[in-house]
Amino acid sequence: MKILFIGMGYVGTTMAVVLANAGHEVTGLDVDNDKISSLQKGELYFHEPGLQTMLMTQLQNKNLTFTSDPKEAVETNDVLFITVGTPSQQDGNADLTYVKKAAQMIGSFINKTKTVIVKSTVPIGSTEKIGEWIHEASQGRFAVNMVMNPEFLREGSAVQDALNPDRIVIGSTNTAGLDDMKTIYKSWDCPIVQTTTRTAEMIKYSSNAFLATKISFMNEIARLCDQLQVNVRDVSKGVGLDHRIGSAFLHAGLGYGGSCFPKDVKELLWTADAYQNPLQILKEVETVNQTQPDYFLGKVREKYPSLAGKKVTLLGLAFKPDTDDTRESVSFPIMKQLTDEKAQVIVHDPIVQLSPSWLAQGVIQHSDPYEAVKGADVIIICTNWPQYEELDWKKVTGLVRHRFIFDGRNMLDAQEMKRLNFYYTGIGYS
Ligand code: UDX
Ligand code: UDX
């Protein structure tokens, strides 16, 4: 089956490589020529474990090609996946500009009936709209089989998530489209949920909204744990072992970031408001997430009422470990707060490089974490990179000026840190 992916971002690239690996003939298309030329050379332009090797293998097998030519790409493929971004607008509603462009491009070059699969996360009802946009652009010359097939790929484990999904959701009532989906996923052995396009769209939003809810719920409990001298890590463990609840996404800390949760929560809230059916729980989920960094910085201020002139080492810039993605990463608002307060900020991240604009503001980045903590008055952990757990913290005691650790991811062993005479606190954990 000849498959085209329109949009070579995190999701499009991962799925294109994984479907090529499953034996399909896959082409990747993007408006960004730099991305296409680096992918053509087998160079992955972002960090995703396991993807680089698979990309190389599939290029060599000739199962995978990349192009910047939309006409040829649309004409020569049978199944077209849309994987362009759907960022939030000011009001929270998802911006469908790129999806619309992709639809119009398909409509203007379509040369026979094709299956179009929407994998971008789109508001409820959008897949129908996308079908109409294609129809308008093609002036109805060819029928299109519309399918909504949401992605559930976590950055950092996207390849494993794509190879071993908990389920595949297929939203379509079109027989030819459903047949194509069976062929595409024939080597997958997992539950398939077949629904309408609208239901598939809602499954995607509800999944991310629910996961975000688990995180904010635990973060709120963590704040209470702080007051009651309760260990939230143990609470998460004790609660999560109940199989009705599950242990995933109960890790308290600085809250959720990334390209999906913040955007998808905002979009669902926007839709609910537009239908005068506000989602009260989800509103609070967002509020807890937005206020968590301030709550955490409040703990720093208890120890240092003024951070002016203090040397603060911030560990971790990525929104989560094993990715170089910094979209909605909490590290940046925290860094801004610290620089506004005239602290001297030193950062470290295993793979993310700070942009020149931050460096111009006096923030210093070190590639060696031990260099980064030299002379520090305070260490703040923003991303739970395993490297930080593995640091020789005894060695760190000899490098810092003052032994203060504020662990925004509750990742270090509090007892061990106290044994090393650090003042140590996480959130709901100390
Ligand atoms: C994807 C989804 O599409 C999004 O809706 C979902 O919620 C998260 O996953 P992601 O892969 O993170 O988004 O997007 P991004 O990394 O921004 O990549 C989008 C790609 O589409 C970019 O490479 C961009 O250059 C490309 N693009 C954009 C096009 O090819 N055509 C366009 O018109 C616009
Ligand atoms: C998410 C979805 O999980 C995935 O299915 C897809 O829809 C894309 O969006 P992603 O954003 O890549 O994946 O990573 P995820 O592992 O979900 O983490 C999101 C954020 O939540 C991160 O900032 C992470 O640090 C935070 N998180 C996660 C917690 O704070 N606590 C947890 O217990 C789990």
State the gist of this model.
This protein has 18 helices and 14 strands.
Describe this structure in words.
With 430 residues, this protein is α/β, with parallel strands linked by helices. It folds into 2 domains: 2-194, 3-Layer(aba) Sandwich (Rossmann fold), CATH 3.40.50.720; 196-430, Rossmann fold (3-Layer(aba) Sandwich). It contains 18 helices and 14 strands. It has helices at residues 10-21, 33-40, 51-61, 70-76, 97-109, 126-138, 158-163, 175-184, 197-228, 232-240, 261-274, 280-303, 331-340, 356-360, 369-373, 386-389, 393-397, 414-419, and strands at 2-6, 25-29, 64-67, 79-82, 114-118, 144-148, 168-171, 192-195, 311-315, 344-348, 364-365, 378-381, 404-407, 423-425. It has a 6-stranded parallel sheet with strand order 3-2-1-4-5-6, sandwiched between helices. Helix 1 (10-21) crosses helix 3 (51-61) and helix 5 runs parallel beside helix 6 (126-138). The longest helix is centred in the middle third of the chain and has 32 residues, at 197-228. The radius of gyration is 23 Å and the shape is globular. The protein starts with a strand and ends in a 5-residue tail after the last strand. 44% of the residues are buried. The model has no long low-confidence stretch (mean pLDDT 98). The chain binds uridine-5'-diphosphate-xylopyranose (UDX) (2 copies).
Which terms would index this structure?
single chain; 430 residues; alpha/beta; Rossmann fold; six-stranded parallel beta sheet; 14 strands; binds uridine-5'-diphosphate-xylopyranose
Give the SSE map:
Elements: E1 2-6, H1 10-21, E2 25-29, H2 33-40, H3 51-61, E3 64-67, H4 70-76, E4 79-82, H5 97-109, E5 114-118, H6 126-138, E6 144-148, H7 158-163, E7 168-171, H8 175-184, E8 192-195, H9 197-228, H10 232-240, H11 261-274, H12 280-303, E9 311-315, H13 331-340, E10 344-348, H14 356-360, E11 364-365, H15 369-373, E12 378-381, H16 386-389, H17 393-397, E13 404-407, H18 414-419, E14 423-425
Parallel strand pairs: 1-2, 1-4, 2-3, 4-5, 5-6, 7-8, 9-10, 9-12, 10-11, 12-13, 13-14
